[in-house]
């Protein structure tokens, strides 16, 4: 996949280093990175055993549009099933990007993009 067709939001992504438990090979190099993600909803980590791996996961799509001086990525965000994500997508929402049970990145939504259903 070279670009996301159904955009949901823009976000800033912070990739964890290998030492922090992130990807051993560093950030992905594909045009559109596909993984699973969970929304950070309050204090889930305190009440849900195995969180975030045990949380309700969504398939996320990330397309890099730029890189900040501190190494964080600016990305466009989509989901394989956008209607499941939309109730949680708002400016400032936080997500944890997972590869299997391992958290490899965090994301903060910057802007919500209008869907074709909204127009």
Keywords:
6-stranded antiparallel β-barrel, mainly beta, 2 helices, 119 residues, globular, 6 strands
What would you say about this model in short?
The protein is mainly beta and 119 residues long.
Describe this structure as you would to a colleague.
The protein is mainly β. The longest helix is centred in the middle third of the chain and has 4 residues, at 44-47. It has helices at 44-47, 82-85; strands at residues 7-15, 32-39, 58-67, 73-79, 94-99, 102-112. The protein has two helices and six strands.
Overall SS class: mainly beta
Q: Main β-sheet, in a few words?
A: 6 strands, antiparallel, barrel
Euclidean distance between termini CA atoms = 26 Å
Rg (CA only) = 14 Å
Strand order of the largest sheet: 1-4-3-2-5-6
User: Total number of β-strand segments?
Assistant: 6
Arithmetic mean of pLDDT:
88
Residue runs with pLDDT of under 50 for 5 or more positions: none
Shape: globular
How many helices? The count is: 2
Strand residue content: 35-45%
SSE diagram, text form:
Elements: E1 7-15, E2 32-39, H1 44-47, E3 58-67, E4 73-79, H2 82-85, E5 94-99, E6 102-112
Antiparallel strand pairs: 1-4, 1-6, 2-3, 2-5, 3-4, 5-6
């Amino acid at each position: 996949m070279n670009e996301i067709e159904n955009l949901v939001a823009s976000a800033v992504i912070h990739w964890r280093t290998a030492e922090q438990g992130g990807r051993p090979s560093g950030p992905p190099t594909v045009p559109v990175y596909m993984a699973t993600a969970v929304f950070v909803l309050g204090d889930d980590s305190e009440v849900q055993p195995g969180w975030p791996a045990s949380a309700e996961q969504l398939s996320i799509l990330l397309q890099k549009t730029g890189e900040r001086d501190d190494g964080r990525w600016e990305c466009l965000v989509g989901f394989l099933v956008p209607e499941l994500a939309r109730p949680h997508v708002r400016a400032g929402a936080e997500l944890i990007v997972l590869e299997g049970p391992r958290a490899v990145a965090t994301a903060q939504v910057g802007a919500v993009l209008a869907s074709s259903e909204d127009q």
